[in-house]
From TrEMBL:
Belongs to the BexD/CtrA/VexA family. It comes from the Bacteria. The keyword Disulfide bond does not apply. Residues 128-207 form the SLBB domain. Residues 45-117 form the Polysaccharide export protein N-terminal domain. It holds the Pfam family Poly_export. Its main location: membrane. This is Sugar ABC transporter substrate-binding protein. It comes from Thalassotalea algicola. GO terms for biological process: monoatomic ion transport. InterPro entries: PEP-CTERM_polysacc_export (IPR017477), Poly_export (IPR049712), Poly_export_N (IPR003715), SLBB_dom (IPR054765). Residues 1-25 form the signal peptide.
Length: 212
């Protein structure tokens, strides 16, 4: 093959690769996901918040026709016989009851409302997420006084490839993301109870893979 032809082919290849890199570099980058802070700032201030997927039972005293059980939609709202869209996600049952009383006061005289919840999914801001080398990575609905050990039991512990002592906990505090080191191997393998720590709603646990 003629050397001149080969040089042309090489030049075209380099040009095509360069255009590919330019095209890749021009692809817009998505902004970082926003981690919405939980309303719980310490283990003693925890109150359950309603979330999408929860079953909400609304009892209106002496008004059974507007009472009922409703499933919270993915947009965080429910639809009742009187009001089509009532925002409920992120509220405690008591807060929701008072808000519904205010809404129903347009149609009823002095309504008295009681709200109970079933399902207990909760909003994403209240769930604990475990990713990486956990046996069953998943999102967990927070329960009051939950600890790292409780979370590890629920996800089935760590895989054989996990580097538990290099695990990281990501927590939003005062609007800022903070990272804390976890010693999960010390807790699970050596029984060092000092490595057990309190969990808070919204915590993210990242378990890396070991290099060895």
């Amino acid at each position: 093959m003629d050397n001149r032809f080969i040089r042309v082919i090489k030049s075209m290849t380099v040009l095509a690769f360069g255009l590919f890199l330019v095209a890749c570099s021009s692809v817009p980058t998505l902004p970082q996901a926003t981690l919405h802070p939980s309303k719980t700032t310490d283990i003693d201030s925890y109150r359950y918040l309603i979330g999408a997927g929860d079953s909400v039972n609304i009892f209106v005293w002496r008004n059974p026709e507007v009472s009922g059980t409703f499933t919270v939609r993915p947009d965080g709202m429910i639809t009742t016989s009187l009001v089509e869209d009532i925002p409920v996600s992120g509220r405690t049952p008591t807060e929701l009851a008072r808000e519904i009383e205010q809404t129903l006061s347009t149609y009823l005289r002095d309504p008295i409302v009681t709200v109970t919840v079933g399902g207990f999914v909760g909003p994403f801001s209240e769930q604990i997420r475990v990713i990486g080398e956990a046996t069953q990575p998943q999102s967990i609905s927070y329960k009051k006084n939950m600890t790292l050990l409780d979370v590890m039991i629920q996800v089935g512990g760590l895989t054989e490839f996990a580097d538990g002592n290099d695990a990281i906990l990501v927590r939003v505090e005062n609007g800022q993301q903070k990272q804390y080191e976890l010693a999960i191997d010390d807790l699970l393998k050596d029984g060092e109870i000092e490595a057990n720590v309190d969990m808070l709603p919204g915590d993210i646990i990242i378990v890396p893979e070991t290099w060895l």
